[in-house]
Amino acid sequence: xxxxxxxxxxxxxxxxxxxxxxxxxxxxxxxxxxxxxxxxxxxxxxxxxxxxxxxxxxxxxxxxxxxxxxxxxxxxxxxxxxxxxxxxxxxxxxxxxxxxxxxxxxxxxxxxxxxxxxxxxxxxxxxxxxxxxxxxxxxxxxxxxxxxxxxxxxxxxxxxxxxxxxxxxxxxxxxxxxxxxxxxxxxxxxxxxxxxxxxxxxxxxxxxxxxxxxxxxxxxxxxxxxxxxxxxxxxxxxxxxxxxxxxxxxxxxxxxxxxxxxxxxxxxxxxxxxxxxxxxxxxxxxxxxxxxxxxxxxxxxxxxxxxxxxxxxxxxxxxxxxxxxxxxxxxxxxxxxxxxxxxx
Length: 344
Description:
The protein has helices at residues 16-24, 39-47, 67-80, 94-100, 108-128, 167-176, 188-204, 227-245, 251-256, 260-271, 284-290, 296-307, 324-337; strands spanning 2-6, 29-32, 54-57, 60-61, 85-90, 134-135, 140-141, 160-164, 179-182, 214-217, 220-222, 291-293, 313-316. It is of the alpha/beta class. It has one domain: Luciferase-like domain (TIM Barrel). The protein has an eight-stranded parallel β-barrel with strand order 1-2-3-5-8-9-10-13, surrounded by six helices. The model is unreliable at 340-344 (pLDDT under 50).
């Protein structure tokens, strides 16, 4: 069982100190996100101070870049890291793609599927020397003079993992990706009734239905060594749940639990820029459904109980400051359970 850490946003401007500590603590990987900083630059910096730590983008916004730009970045990072890159991609939502990145948006599931196929076609052309000839509905790549082909390396293409919430994107991940990154805004019930069946449907349509598909889960966690720390953690996670819940694209998760009206309230407040009012709507039932709430030494057992048969890799994601001792306790607990098969 591999254990990864999701880097806090504030640590990603220069993730080198965190990367050193994460590797020294025994974690297997570090995920860098595209929120305030570029995850590819952060992964590059982290690679310079680590030797074995897997470095992933969770996520890089696919539609903010052309497949060619991403192919070059991933190829170079795979070489720089010695084969330690995990290329995690996601769509973001329409408003961000069109109004923040000023890029086109249409049929996100179909576009992301073609994006991955374009990536693989580019990498294959570099590897084999064959003519690049990819022509799709959204992307066309037919020009690749030898002067622009990157130098080969021995590590192969980076694994591609796709993030998603709804069934359409999840099926795409099952069909064309090497792995799936369930969004943190999910629940055990949603994973079992919606996510896993969608992954299976997608895999059945893939070129190799029996190929392994890695599921890297990052459930929300509320923990602390004292009651004060746990209350602060709960406050931060309520805010995170409320932020995601205000996005209409994520409403189906709430609807599955009968909380559709909560989604409406959160969305209305967000449209009015009343962000500080959102977290108070997240009661204990909602918090418990989305997050594991436990002391550090008990987090692993609760993760195993709820997600042990759903995830292949576990990412510890804590959207609030914690001491290294807390991360060490969680990692030790997960590793103690893994050999017995509680988490596999």
